[in-house]
Amino acid sequence: MLLKENIENNLNDAIRFTEEILPSVSRTFYLAIKFLPKKLGHPVGLAYLLCRIADTYEDSLILSPSQRKDNLLKYSKLLSTPNGYDEDILNDLKNSFVDYQQYLDISHSIDHLPNIKLVENIDMVLTAFDSLPENYRKHIFPRVREMAEGMATYTTFAGSNEPYVYYLRDENDWDKYCYYVAGTVGHMLTDIFSDYAGFSNNTRQRLHILGRSFGLGLQKVNILKDAVIDTKRGICFLPRTLIERYGISFPGHFKGDIAGLVSKVVEICRFHFQDSLEYIKLVPKKYLGLRMFLIVPLMLAAKTLRLFTDYPHRLLDKGDLKLARDEVWKLVKWSSLYKFSNRLLLSAFERTYPG
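User: That's the sequence. What structure does it adopt?
Assistant: Structure tokens below.
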């Protein structure tokens, strides 16, 4: 009886930790996940935390490129043996930042304390994860492993001391990188949603195609938003072909045809977000929480691109252009109406999206 109570207490502590850390590591995602029913929100939240751990290793400014790659590959290996985790690997990953505490910058998007705390408590996340039903667990680990291994192939290019910025080669390379970071998430969520809602195989297959594109679109908006910050650590996740086409240079900030670059990214993302709209339309209206979860990030991305289009030079000169908090809440409020009607959603998207 005591052993059973200890196991239950450990699980309760783990679930409490994951619920408390989630809003600290992503306000935007937490904003959307709150609309999901708890039965769905719990596995999606844990899936996000597992992805966030990979993000923390990939984007860290205080770990060397080789350390980032090593941690990502270790993380993938750790997740290859669910319910029998390698203790040595687990401890190595938990202690990745122990020797760098004095360098942690709470203002940086990745190397700030909640993300580090998440990494230091991987075991708590895994304990909570292991309590999920098998039909959810089987969809999550393979996609997180694919994400981590894909990220690892790009980490050694970042953080170089050489006096130049590494770019992704071209738009195909851009799509490949964005797939690892976000397309995998689209596939993972599609399987979770399909199991929850009992979608047919045909619907699931169609959602997989659209969900991959949905993820790529959201990631490309994030890449444009963070371009200035990324170049300061020696990498740019925009493709070299676009950088050269618009004559962009980085003498401490962006110069060149910035408006042209933004316009091109807006054009590219429109195709992705048409797929996003089709994805949402395939989700029946009886799943209002799920529709809201999908609508919020789509409309935030559309509004963000509108802001970039209106103020392109501020975006890439200072790198501090983002939606005001009241704008975010206003958009969420209006989105609560769009979930009832595909027609209203399409109309709102077209009014918001630039071009």
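Residues 231 and 250 are 8 Å apart (CA to CA).
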